């Protein structure tokens, strides 16, 4: 098992260096970009068709006039479709079965995922408490069906949205960079950079915040040998921001703020400084229980029938 800076790296190096590692990761990046657009378009078509089928004849996905439940459903569905896209690209480019993108077990380690969700929920709980309190204090109108529908959509679909982004960026692309033999820090930074770029918000504070988040999720993926920690923090963080924003009728400002400051970056840095060491500590404590050594007789080597 390869180690770097004291960190075991079975997940990062599962696609062992071989012929074509550089062109494969380049194709993976390009295909991920194209696939992201295709998934978004497909999701819009599916949600629009479903809405009109059940009687909303004038429904259209239009983020320019505010984000409602339908818009959020289409957005999260499109990002959730990145999960099968990542599986397809991993299989076609690297000959790896989809389950090996999740962790070194293989597959998602559900007990560990729930542990990470618990940590993230505690760390980001101030957003839930303060946001809900602010809505209760400042909201004059009663909470209508539209707001409740938005909250339900966020609760039900954000886990898939977060998982979709993690499978593409910290699953497929992180492993692709890892296969080249690049150092852990470089692999984490590159996936963070791509993650930030994909959001298409280039104000320095927002961009730096996404790079930080992406790199932190990547490091946790390497450290814990799977996507669970990144999915947990990513999903809980997004819900902690979107649900209070929905209750306050302030979703547009939450997703695309007009006034950009460094405060969100500082807040995320502080919260990550709590969550990341906490999860790393729990992983060290429960490592033997939740993840047997991936290259021992207990778990077979991942299939890597790579193309020549």
Describe this structure in words.
This protein has one domain. It is globular and about 60 Å long. The protein has a two-stranded antiparallel sheet with strand order 1-2. Helix 4 crosses helix 9, helix 6 packs antiparallel against helix 7 and helix 8 packs parallel to helix 11. With about 300 residues, it is mainly alpha-helical. A hairpin with a 2-residue loop joins strand 1 and strand 2. About 70% of the residues lie in helices and about 0% in strands.
Which features characterize this protein?
68% helix, 308 residues, globular
Topology:
Blueprint: E1 3-4, E2 7-8, H1 21-53, H2 69-80, H3 82-94, H4 110-123, H5 125-138, H6 145-179, H7 184-198, H8 204-224, H9 228-247, H10 251-255, H11 263-290
Helix pairs in contact: 1-2, 1-3, 1-6, 2-6, 3-6, 4-9, 4-11, 5-9, 6-7, 6-8, 6-9, 7-8, 8-9, 8-11
Q: Strand share of the residues?
A: under 5%
Count of helices?
11
Number of domains: 1
The H-and-E topology, N to C, reads as EEHHHHHHHHHHH
Structure in a nutshell:
With 308 residues, the chain is mainly alpha-helical. The chain has 11 helices and 2 strands; from the N terminus they run ββααααααααααα. It has one domain (11-290).
């Amino acid at each position: 098992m390869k180690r770097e800076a004291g960190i075991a790296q079975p997940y990062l190096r599962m696609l062992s260096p071989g012929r074509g590692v550089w062109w494969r990761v380049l194709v993976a990046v390009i295909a991920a970009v194209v696939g992201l657009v295709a998934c978004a378009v497909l999701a819009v078509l599916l949600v629009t068709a479903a809405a009109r089928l059940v009687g909303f004849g004038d429904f259209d996905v239009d983020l320019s006039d505010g984000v409602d439940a339908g818009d959020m459903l289409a957005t999260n569905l499109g990002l959730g479709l990145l999960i099968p896209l990542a599986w397809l690209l991993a299989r076609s480019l690297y000959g790896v079965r989809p389950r090996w993108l999740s962790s070194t077990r293989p597959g998602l380690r559900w007990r560990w995922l729930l542990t990470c969700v618990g940590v993230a929920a505690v760390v980001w709980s101030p957003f839930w408490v303060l946001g809900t309190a602010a809505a209760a204090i400042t909201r004059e109108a009663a909470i209508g069906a539209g707001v409740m529908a938005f909250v339900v959509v966020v609760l039900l679909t954000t886990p898939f949205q977060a998982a979709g982004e993690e499978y593409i960026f910290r699953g497929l692309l992180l492993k692709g960079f890892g296969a080249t033999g690049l150092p852990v820090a470089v692999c984490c930074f590159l996936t963070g950079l791509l993650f930030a770029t994909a959001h298409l918000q280039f104000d320095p504070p927002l961009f730096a915040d996404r790079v930080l988040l992406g790199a932190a999720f990547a490091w946790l993926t390497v450290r814990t040998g799977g996507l669970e920690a990144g999915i947990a923090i990513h999903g809980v963080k997004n819900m902690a921001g979107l649900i209070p924003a929905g209750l306050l009728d302030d979703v547009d400002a939450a997703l695309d703020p007009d006034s950009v400051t460094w405060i969100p970056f500082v807040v995320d840095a502080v919260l990550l400084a709590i969550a990341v060491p906490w999860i790393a500590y729990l992983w060290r404590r429960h490592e033997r229980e939740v993840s047997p050594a991936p290259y021992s007789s207990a778990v077979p080597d991942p299939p890597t029938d790579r193309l020549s």
